[in-house]
Specification:
rod-shaped; single chain; 6 strands; alpha+beta; four-stranded antiparallel β-sheet
Amino acid sequence: MGKDKVENEDLIKYAWPQDVWFHVDKLSSAHVYLRMPPTMTCDSIPQALLTDCAQLVKANSIDGNKKDNLTVIYTPGSNLKKSGDMAVGQVSFHSDKQVKRVHVAKRENIIVNRLNKTKVERVVDHEQERVDRIKKENAEKSAAAAQMKKAEAELAKTREAEKAARSYDLLFEVEEDPDAPKLTGKAIEEDFM
């Protein structure tokens, strides 16, 4: 979560494509990012987690915290668009269809207090996190490509063996006895007769 518009700007810049961005609609608020596990999508966020994120955004909005019946918007980090003419901390979207909304009727202090009690603040090196993530993703892609290449090589070997088994090329091959005397042209003619 960004504490101010400068931190929000860093979060926009370094958001992972699978992160989910939360913000109070049409009011200033903190940017809250949900780091998704690889198996979860934006559509499969559990309702309890969605409520927690929405309450956290509402609680960290100066204007939104005082109002009831707010809409919190959320979208994948890959959908955030930032252009040079925008103010610090301001974003737009590549596709409005990917922006989802959740209604927050009122502030639920129980949820906000629970989140504040379990809050852990740490200094994050966003650039290093990006480098580490890219290295990990590239290593996974390389491992998957190597596995695919190995599987293709095994499949090619299997197909070659099946092709050789179906071939008539080996049907008429005669195995020569290494101890047998080598016959010359005249001897072969005599052996033939």
